[in-house]
Amino acid sequence: MRHVIALDVGGTGMKAALVGADGALLHEARRATARERGPDAVVESIVGFAADLRAYGEEHFGQSAAAAGVAVPGIVDAENGIAVYAANLGWRDVPLRELLSRRLDGTPVALGHDVRTGGLAEGRIGAGRGTDRFLFVPLGTGIAGAIGIDGRIEAGANGNAGEIGHIVVRPDGPPCGCGQRGCLERLASASAVSAAWAAASGDPDADAADCAKAVESGHPAACLVWQTAVDALADGLITALTLLDPGTLIIGGGLAEAGETLFTPLRAAVAKRVTFQKLPHIVPAALGDTAGCLGAGLLAWDLLDTESMESTEVSA
User: Fold this and answer.
1) In this predicted structure, what is the pLDDT of residue 151?
2) What pLDDT, on a 0 to 100 scale, did the predictor assign at position 157?
3) What is the block-wise mean pLDDT of the chain (316 residues), using blocks of 10 residues?
4) Is the dihedral of CA 28, 34, 35, 40 positive or negative?
5) pLDDT at 316
6) What pLDDT, on a 0 to 100 scale, did the predictor assign at position 22?
7) Which of 120, 100, 119 is nearest to 110 (CA)?
8) DSSP label of 279
9) pLDDT (0 to 100) of residue 89
10) Which residues of 61-72 are buried (b: 16+ CB within 10 A; e: fewer)?
């Protein structure tokens, strides 16, 4: 049975699948990244996992994977197959596509940024299905974005398109690791809400989910923390809407798990800020933490389609 390898690399773990031509998940697996053993061990864990997945496909489906798609965090040069930088994995300029293809005996490999890869899946088979223009914004440890245009994701000239988390929404706000102050992700990410609620509640172990529960019970301090984050998020999103004019705005990540506790005030806050802009549909992501893996599978199938088209053009 023809299939591809889909691999989503996170800061601590990896999610993987063998994906059939119809999108069916034929096999799923998870594995740690071995981050504690250093960057070389992380790379070996990735290529070793891919090799094991290839062997599983040969044994159970009678043939090797036709291609592999891999989503990784940090800065990615997808065109050249290089994982440029990822602080949480400790690597710089890793030729990951080459290393994977070598271990997989020449199997073609597509490399993608984790958020943009997740956005690809949300746009094609998730919450943005049927939408030709969308913006996917996951609210997790940080905030990033994926710009969807006609079934593909816009990476930008240098692979940095969609970094909405580094829009400055509070110029006098807290410093960000990017060198600016008051970036959106420092005020409205799940980690930012966790930190603010831990300080407000006096409980160092409190997190964003705890804050959402306190908001639902009407806790005044929690409501203030929550609304402060929602207002910052709405300010950042208005800038994105002004520049990109998406038809659908897909919100994912850990903070979106609060459901209408987030979406009701967020829709209201964005609507309040709209002037000439067209208000998009604001919807929750549909694929959860499987988006990156599913998107990696789409990258692999897209790679095969591209190679097939190029082969046909050469033959013609």
Assistant:
1) 87
2) 86
3) 94 92 92 88 94 97 96 90 86 94 96 95 94 95 94 88 95 94 97 97 97 98 98 98 96 96 98 96 94 95 77 50
4) negative
5) 47
6) 87
7) 100
8) P
9) 86
10) beebbbbbbbbb
CA distances for 5 relative to 25, 120, 125, 222, 315, angstroms: 10, 16, 18, 43, 28
Q: Which two tokens stand for residue 132?
A: 């030709």
Cβ neighbours around 133 below 10 Å, total: 16
Q: How many CB atoms lie within 10 A of CB 309?
A: 10
- Please tell me the distance from the alpha carbon of residue 246 to that of residue 230, in angstroms, as a whole number: 20
CA dihedral 232, 84, 254, 183 (to 10 degrees): -10
pLDDT value, residue 311: 53
Strand pairing report for 248-252 and 133-138? parallel
Residue type for position 259: G
Contact assessment for residue 122 and residue 286, using Cβ atoms and an 8 Å cutoff:
yes
Residue labelled with tokens 């893996």? 293
Residue listed under structure tokens 């940080």:
142
Q: Which structural domains are found in the chain, ordered by start?
A: 3-113 (3.30.420.40), 127-286 (3.30.420.40)
Q: Give the separation between CA 233 and CA 290, rounded to whole angstroms.
A: 24
> Residue 205 phi/psi, 5° resolution?
-95, -5
Distances (CA, A) of 34 to 12, 60, 138, 280: 8, 27, 25, 41
CB 26 within 8 A of CB 19: yes
181 φ, ψ to 5°? -120, 145
Q: What is the spatial distance between Cα 43 and Cα 103, in angstroms, rounded to a whole number?
A: 12
Burial pattern 109-118, b for ≥16 Cβ within 10 A else e, equals: bbbbbbbbbb
Q: Which residues contact 236 (CB under 8 A, 6 or more apart)?
A: 143, 164, 167, 169, 184, 188
The residues, any chain, with a CB within 8 Å of residue 83's CB and separated by 6 or more, are 72, 74, 75, 76, 91, 93, 94, 96, 111
